[in-house]
User: Fold L-ribulose-5-phosphate 4-epimerase from Bifidobacterium jacchi.
Amino acid sequence: MVTLADFGPEVRAEVKQVREVVSSLHQQLIKWNLVVWTAGNVSQRLRTADLMVIKPSGVRYEDLTPNSMVVTDLEGNVVDGAEAPSSDTASHAYIYRNMPDVYGVVHTHSTYATAWAATGQNIPCGLTMMGDEFGGPVPVGPFRLIGSEAIGKGVVETLKKYPKSPAVLMQNHGPFTIGKDAEAAVKAAAMTEEVAHTMWAARQLGEIIEIDQADIDKLNDRYQNVYGQH
Assistant:
């Protein structure tokens, strides 16, 4: 059995830093009303080794600390940590193995995004901010049971069809988001819930006016390559 002691000082130093980041980002899920009780999880992949850091299973958010974060390999095997890892660990690991540019994964059961997932509907792209962030609708992925890498496979399959989206709504389950690191994935989770809520409200008023894909592409290009500080 491989343990953290089998890795060199560079890896162990990154594990310490990533544990701190992942622990603190779970508090952002609370701040943005994306989770309740012990639901949801954040993970981040290391850059110095094929390892990831993820939330322990069933532990309340107020009890999370950097030391309680669990380190696993990219098959989901525990490398370091006193607690059992999240029940979504195998799916996070599958995403990292099959999407090499992804270094952060988040799962929540945020209310409005999960409502769209429960009805098996994409969130239609009726806002410029959706063009910016998602490059189109937020897609729905297939129904999969929890506890294996099946959900991860569904996430990867869906995002290959929607390569600009950092989010997928797994049917009857909830949103998974990805990013260049865990913070980017948390941002995508917050944005997913925001647009899910707004598009739900728009539906109550009437039909959503979807934006043409050509305009979405222009919005997305500007947001990804021009907006913000560089």
Notes: The beta strands are 41-45, 51-54, 70-73, 78-80, 104-107, 140-141, 167-170, 174-179. Residues 4-225 form a domain with the L-fuculose-1-phosphate Aldolase fold (CATH 3.40.225.10). The chain has a mean pLDDT of 97.
